[in-house]
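Thread: Newbie trying to understand structure tokens

Hi all, I'm a second-year student working on a class project, and my supervisor (Dr. K.) asked me to get a predicted structure for one chain before our next meeting. I've only ever worked with sequences, so writing a 3D structure as a token string is new to me. If someone could post the tokens and maybe explain what I'm looking at, I'd be very grateful. Here's the chain:
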Amino acid sequence: MSDAEQSSENHSHEPPSDEEYTVSPLELFFDLVFVFAFTQVTALMAYDLTWIGLLRGAALLLVVWWAWAGYSWLTNAVRVDDLIPARIVVFAAMAAGLVMALAIPDAFSGDGVMFGFSYFAVTALFVLLYLVATKDRPEMHRAVVLLAPGVLGAPVLIVIAGFLEAGFIRGTLWTVAIVGTIGAPFVSGTQGWYVRPGHFAERYGLILIIALGESLVALGVSASEEPKTFTVVAASVIGLAIVACLWWIYFDVVSRAAELALRRVEGAARNAMARDVYSYIHFFMVLGVVLVALGLKKALLDVGGPLHLIASVGLFGGAALYLLGHIAVRLRIVGGVNPWRLGLSIVFLCLIPVGTTIAAYLSVSLLLALLAAGIGQTLWTYGDQRHRVRYHAE
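---
Reply by user tm_fold:
Sure, no problem. This is what the structure looks like when written as tokens:
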């Protein structure tokens, strides 16, 4: 090997293309900021229990999600934790992410500029680190260059919106920023990126666990503010069981099936599948979990009274959105629809008005019963397929 080749190898910091690695402690540490960010989004929607508040919460969650997703692709392609300068950049991104999370409650009012600049800092640091880390890999470097204008343009628009009063122009800037953020990966294409299936699946599974953990935090905080009556304690346990069902639905089969599907394709096809299944569809799963957290939070604050319409939308509509995300994953990786999950999603949507007329503890009990029944039905109907995916398919 020549000196030039040796130098290139020493600076690439990328394992061989067939080498997998697990999520590093640095990535887990980085993700802690987003625990707080998810909590802030739920708190914002709980405080502003209106359709506008719900829409704003979804928009902020999308921005936070894409800030995180960029680093999920970065750390999947290169081991940034191996380099001290890269660690420092990640810590700086965490600081910017913390400021962004702090600004979430007033991102559409007094703290809009702070939110915009911190979002820009998180994104700019991601692009900068990606460009430096891939300087010896021309195809990936070119892919980052093509993506950069789209992902950097969105926070610039949000910064500008932060200087404006509430109104049509600010709303338009936010809308264009979100559309640009979502569309940038499609415009830049999938050529040149690199995906390690095992690490990628693990990273997105962990962020879903973070979202589920945020649901438990919201549940616990609300329950701690109420007298510890039997109904409150029982509703808290039922809420935990609901979150456990959401965990089961994803991690029993879906997470494994998605990873296996990713392993079966290569190159641009793998990149496209990773983009669609994880960066896009998983957002709707996380949004569904956050909405369920909103519903649980409000249910525990008044277990004997009916849910507010928006809280019922969160509880039942969030569960429906979560299941629809799983349906979309199946459509993308193997085709076909699980009719039971589709039917259950429709039932949940139909229960939204019911939640506004019955006691909140009955709503959470009903949600748990239906989720548990859905899990039992899946085990009964798809037992053989489940066993193959979990234990035999490679």
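A couple of things are worth pointing out once you decode it. Residues 1-17 have pLDDT under 50 and may be disordered. Residues 5 and 11 are 10 Å apart (CA to CA). Feel free to ask follow-ups in this thread.
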